[in-house]
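Q: Here's a chain of 343 amino acids. Please give me its 3D structure as tokens.
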Amino acid sequence: MGSRAEPTGRSGFLPDRIIHLHPTRLCNLACLHCYSTSAPLHTEALDANVLCAALGVLRAEGYTQVSLSGGEPLVYKPVGRLVERSKELGFRVTMVSNGLLASKRLGPMLRLLDGIAVSFDGLPDRHNAMRGREDAFERAAAGLRWLAEREAPVGAAISLTRDGIPELPELVDRVVELGARAVQVRPVARAGRARELDPGSFFDASDSARLYLVVLALQMELPEVRMHCDLAPAQGLWGQRDAYDGLLGGCEGTAYEDRPLADLVNPLVITDTGALKPIAYDFDDRFDIASLDRLELRSYKEQRLGALQELVGGALLGMRDREDLVDWFDHCARLSEVAPIAA
């Protein structure tokens, strides 16, 4: 394909313009905290032909990265074809996996992936309890090690309940020893199956501060590892509000309907039902952008973008006087559940 001019400037609080793609909710686990309620019984999956065609449209709309998740992406039968087509279109391609099938199914795709993260929820006892499988930690660790031995760009994606915070330093030491080059840490979101967890599993302000400080200490201890925490100081978000100029700025220069969708909505989420959502998998359905079989993006920009602008603008304004830490994308998803939308 011919070269494409990449978009310039920020689009929200992300370094890239990202599509979070969930082609199926089929999974070889049924984790207690799964935000998409994935499980072995969910056998439905997106049609690969429709999906590949849509990715071509979305590449032209300015998106630069496809992040594959699920469900477990390695149980999606056409995943290899999807990765190949994404690379042909010029996307960077990353994946989040539970690691159980890494050595069996990832081999042919390794050369095409720009990054892969194996997910963890704590040290073995906690991880296995959350995953509902006694060997889940052992197999995830083996998958991470297998990837690292093949010099794949591998990291760890860690989701924690509040009781798991004390385990984080040892867990990070373990995954780094196994070969992780990057570690992303976040609190478990109150979404999907996690809504059934004990209320004490979720973070309050002091828990968030503890986690944030632990990650800062690990950043200093492990300068060779890219450590990231999804929590951010509210004041820092307010100070970076210009990153949302594409969505919230005036349209005097270029009308919204003539702007690439990636300048307005980032990240974009494609769910296993084919819905295109802003920001998060569990964003309220009232904010849906389009569906894979009806990519009417111009009409969305002309007629329905205002609801998202109002929500994000209000969320940003709410950061101005806050002094705590915020998981921004989860914060916006929770606001979407209660936000009024004009008829």
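Q: Can you summarize the key feature?
A: The chain has twelve helices and twelve strands.
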